[in-house]
Amino acid sequence: MLPTHNRRRAYLRHIVGLAISLFLLYLVFRKFAWHDLNTILVTARLSWLVAASGLYLTSFVWRAWRWQIILKSVKILPAGFLYRNLLAGYALNNLLPARSGDFYRAHSLGVHMQISRISALSSILVERIFDGLVLSSILGLLLIIVPRAKWIQLLGITALAIFGSSLGGILWVVRNAEKMRRLTIVCSRVLPHSWAQAIFRVEENFVNGLGMTTSSSSIAQVCGVSLLIWLVEYAVFWCAMWSLRTSWPWEALAVLLVVANLATLIPSGPGYVGTFQYAFLLSLGMFGVKPNVAVAYSLLVQFVFFATVIPVGLTVLALEKKLKQLPASPL
To answer: How many Å from the N-terminal Cα to the C-terminal Cα in the chain?
Structure first.
């Protein structure tokens, strides 16, 4: 059970996220013509939504392959297990606040694959950083081709700076692991022996999860697969657009893809409700798309994500309970 102060901090994060979601939903729907929503959504063609759902499922194949590459410095794991683990984790992210699904993914690796949960969490951190780097790089290229509003230029510069410096920090940590260990030894002399050993294990396992960054070929592979993942998700957005019997410029969907996914980094309620809709409203508004259409489209895309991942992910979780539990690994 979490200590009282940790529980309070978690509750505070949930409350802040929920407050942000509610505020953004108010901004999105305060002048929304609800009668237009039904008119827009009933025109959606089911065949295109099925195609979007299928494409979204295939994106998890590439995500599993990428995670396998990231984790190979710790342990080579079967891609099938990682695929199921990702689906369950994303389902929980859509149902619970504070990216709870990411913690499930790390816990599941510890239980079933005897991998340190700290190493698993640091590998997920690497995953997020490469996603952010690829997305912000795409946005940077788009802004060179199609200059747009000041806010999106600032977003691109800020995102690239954050994720670029994060990758630089990881590379520094990995390349200076021995120096950090010596520093930890010096600093922990005043601590009880058991505490010092726990700190050493956490530090060692955290660095182990970042191990793939020592290989330039692995970094290139992860960058390439990350780009492929976002190209597949772009195709999901494209299919959802065609389901509404409309067409927007290719760069509008590309900008939307980046902004909507970066918006999920903002604290919010379960399923990124509110932040997702506001990102659609801002992004598509730059290309002259009417607010009612943009919001309806955001609901349609989010429906595809939820209807695809949540049933499959919950099925994985239900089946997992029937499997024999293996002893969990220590930190």
So the answer is: 17
